[in-house]
Amino acid sequence: MQTAAEPVVLVASAEFTLKSSAVRRTLEQRLIDDLKFALRRDELGCSRVEKEAARFVVFGTKDTDLAAAVCRKVFGVAYAASAVLLTNPTLDAIVQSIVGMAQQKLSSGMSFAIRAHRSSSGHVSSHDVEVEAGTGVLRSCKEREVRVDLDDPDLTFYVDLTGADAYVYCHKLNGPGGLPLSAEWKMLAALDSGPLSVLAALAMMRRGCVVELFIPVSNTIANLTFEAQLALAQRVGKLVTRPSYKAFVMEIGELPAGWNLVTDWRDFVRASAVKFAREKRFKGLIFGEVAGQLSSLNCYSGLSPLPIFYPLLGLDEEDLTELIRLAALDSRELSMDWDLGGRSYASQSEMKLLIEELQVPSVREVQF
Known about the structure:
Helix content: 25-40%
Largest sheet: 9 strands, mixed
Radius of gyration: 25 Å
Order of helices and strands: EHEEHEHEHEEEEEHEHEHEHEHHHE
Oligomer: single chain
């Protein structure tokens, strides 16, 4: 028996198929939990999330367009789409659903394509859907002079055929990909390079790491006011699918004898982060360089008992652009010169002495 179309959100995972079946089940459940939390946090809700073939289907959310925009920001999501679920539809019902969507979405002179894919056996052919729906859209939108373009369409209508059911949608919102949070290590990122530190933290979160922030603040060092640093940290916190997200704030006062506040503060911050991360049993440290030779950055790595990661090194423009979009950064913030002053790259002997004798200033925990 055919039922009415039901609004849903269709979510595709990123890298799960590369894992063993046991690991894949764990990652899938983590992703489901993260999707539910993100939707509850934004007061969109959902009645349930079900796995269907290689997709996850979100039911019962208040607004599927808004819900898809929320789901796209969850780590482990390849894309999210606001869709309609047709239960046991006929070919004609699928065609009519696409035609109705086309009448809403296609403007005069636009081109379109229809992509149907079947993931399991059923009574409706994907080829028939493409042919019949294409004909139906051309006929219904004839006065708008729309046209078919299979190579570079202005709008693509997608039909996922699964068993007796069909999902119809026309917009895929790309997600961050990668793995769900907590799939890998808990790490500490030093927020000493402005938005570059934010991007570095997100790059590691995309690999499944829960990343907490070590936040230096100062009333005398440019860009390190508490308000500015907390605003940057909140960009990371908004993407953490956990009930609370904590970070650690360290106020920079006078540096030890022999170190200059103007030129050496970043070395001091990083040495403090090394000692703090070891004390709190983090699994690694994250720094935000976007360019440079590793050989010139390893003054910390040779002295730290923990591995140090520079996840932005080697990323191409497309990867960086995607991280910038995810962090919701604007051009003004990125144009600020964060990659120069305050980084001296002290020698290993100097850094060793600093780390051994360093007393980490008082660090307080904040949650948001």
